[in-house]
């Protein structure tokens, strides 16, 4: 909030250069917030993909959580005015890689009622396969999804 007040003050003073610096800071903070939210949904998505893989089953609840996580990641990542994205494909993959450890920690508590340690889960699932599955779900186009 103080950045907006500072921006207002700089504009009133006619300090365009200073105002542009603050505007860039605000834009960067906004993008960081979006990335943090995408990360949070990525953890949930990866958690349920890990659970499906290890338990070799799924539930309606897990399926719903996966769909909702994918929808929220897509919604957050889409730039409204430019029809572009905040994170490109490579950055999305990096975010999934960063979120994977947190998802594994959560999975250790939930998979098969918490009987596995993180190190055991690491041997039961392949990180690159789970991340590839998550990325495929996120990048699967809405038009393709609606036609099936």
Mean pLDDT: 93
Number of helices: 7
What structural class do you assign from the helix and strand content? mainly alpha
Q: Main β-sheet: number of strands, strand sense, barrel status?
A: none
For the termini, the CA-CA separation is 45 Å
Task: Provide the domain count.
Answer: 1
* SSE pattern: HHHHHHH
- So what's the overall shape? elongated
Radius of gyration: 20 Å
Strand content: under 5%
Q: Give the oligomeric state.
A: single chain
How many E strands? 0
The proportion of residues forming helix, as a percent range, comes to over 70%
Parts with pLDDT < 50 across at least 5 consecutive residues: 143-148
InterPro entries: DUF29
Pfam family, one: DUF29
Organism: Floridaenema aerugineum BLCC-F46
Protein name: DUF29 family protein
Descriptive notes:
- The chain has 148 residues and is an all-alpha fold.
- It has one domain.
- Helices cover 79% and strands 0% of the residues.
- The protein has helices spanning 2-12, 16-55, 60-77, 89-110, 118-124, 127-139, 142-147.
- Helix 2 (16-55) crosses helix 4 (89-110) and helix 3 crosses helix 6.
- It is elongated.
């Amino acid at each position: 909030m103080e950045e907006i007040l500072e921006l207002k003050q700089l504009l009133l003073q006619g300090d365009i250069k200073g105002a542009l610096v603050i505007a860039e800071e605000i834009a960067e903070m906004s993008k960081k917030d979006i990335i943090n939210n995408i990360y949070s949904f990525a953890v949930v998505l990866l958690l349920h993909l890990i659970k499906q893989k290890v338990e070799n089953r799924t539930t309606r609840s897990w399926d719903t959580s996966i769909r909702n996580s994918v929808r929220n990641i897509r919604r957050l990542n889409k730039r409204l005015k430019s029809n572009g994205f905040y994170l490109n494909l490579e950055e999305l993959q990096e975010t999934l890689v960063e979120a994977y450890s947190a998802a594994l920690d959560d999975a250790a508590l939930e998979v098969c009622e918490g009987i596995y340690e993180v190190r055991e889960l690491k041997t039961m699932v392949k990180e690159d396969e789970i991340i590839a599955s998550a990325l495929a779900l996120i990048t699967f186009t809405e038009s393709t999804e609606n036609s099936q």
